[in-house]
Amino acid sequence: IYYPADPKEALRMHGPWLRAVAIARLRGLEGADDVMQDVAMAAVRNWETLRTNVNAKPWLYRLTVRAALMHRRTLGRARKRIKEAIDSYTARNGVSEAPAPKQREATSNDMLRGADPLASLLASERHAQLRLAIARLPVKDVEMLLLKHVDDCSYQEIAKRLGVTAGVVQMRLFRARQKLREILVQQYPEE
User: Is this model's pTM higher than 0.70 or not?
Assistant: First the structure.
C-alpha cells in the first residue's frame, strides 16, 4: 500500500472520489470545483498537522465534507439575499410575482441522438426517475452509492476512504439501496 508524501500527491490520488463526495453533498455539479479548490487549499495549509500519511484518506474526506457544507451554507445565504431583493423589488414596483423561468422543450435533435428514439426516450425517463429518487436520499447514502456504483470502488476501498470498516460500508450500502428501492416503488408503483 502506498501513502502520499505530500498534499499534491494525495489530491492527485484521491481527487476523483473526493469530487464525487462533494457532488453528493452539494446535490449537483454546481460548486464542486469551488469545493475541491477549498479542499486543496486546506490540505496544503494543514498537511503538517496530519500525524501520519496513513490517515490522509479519512482526513481528506472530512475536509471535503466540511468544505461542501460551508459552500452550501454560503449559497443558502446568497439565495436568501436574492429572494429578499426580489421581494423588495416586487413590493416597490407593485409586481405580484416574478415570471417563472421557461423550461427547455425537447427537440427533434434530442430524439436523434440514439438509434431507437423510443429506447432513448425510455432511458432518459428512467434516468430522470432515478435522479429524482436519489435526490430524496440522505447525503451519506448518496455518497456511498456514488463511490460504489459510479467510481466502482470495492467495499474495502470505500472503508479506507471513509475511515470505517468494510462491514459498515456493506450495511450502509444495503440500507441505501433499500431506501432507493422504496422511494422508486412509492413514486412508480406500476413499473
Answer: no
